[in-house]
Structures are given as C-alpha cells and as structure tokens.
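Standup notes
- DV: blocked on the single-chain target, sequence here:
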Amino acid sequence: MKVNTQWKQEQEFTSNHEEQFVQMDGNRLKGISPKALLLAGLSGCSGIDVVAILSKMKMQFSQLQIDAVTEQTDENPKVFKDIHLLFSIHTAIENEEKVRKAIDLSLEKYCGVAAMLRKNSTINYSLIIL
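- DV (later): unblocked, structure below
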C-alpha cells in the first residue's frame, strides 16, 4: 500500500491513494484532522466487515451508522484513550445477536485498523437497533 501526501498551505494536506483523494487540515477548516481520519478509518473498516458478515448471514438491514468517540491524553504525543463505537442499525430486534456477532468478529478478528489501534487503546462498543 502506498499513499502520497502533498502539503498545500498552512496545515492543509491532500493524500492520494489509487486516485482517491482526502483533504486533511490540522486547523479543521478545509479538511478532516488526521486523528479524526484515523477514527473514520476504524469506523469504515469495521463497517465494511459488519456489512459483509451480515450479508453472508442473509440478514435484512439498512442505514448502518457508526459513531466513534474518544478523548486524547494531555501530554505529547497526544494519543487516544479508550475508543467507543456506537453502532446504529435499522433491522428487526430479533437480529440483535447476529449484529453483535458481526461486530465482535470485526473488532476482534477482521478489522486491521482495530488491531493496530488496540495496541494503545481499548475499543468497546454499544449497539442501537432501530
């Protein structure tokens, strides 16, 4: 995997991976901050896994949303403390155990971003069935 990151001005950067671009901005004016992008990567990685697992289970669902919340340490380098993921999914209440199984498999076995972040931060989650 290779990512090219170009400085634009002030704290603005554009990263490119296989012709896909993302804007980052340390000031959060013209792009997402690098640390927020890391949380988005965790949410996206786990979300991709969960969708794939639930699809293999042939479970009906819609509108999956993942909110990631953390705080940072006070001292440099400021790193994430515990990370909490809130999964909200539209599905029948009878599917709750299947959804929990998919999330557990993602966070404990398949999501490489979670595996990397877990070396420093505890990752836990909660689930809302809508």
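- Follow-up: The radius of gyration is 16 Å.
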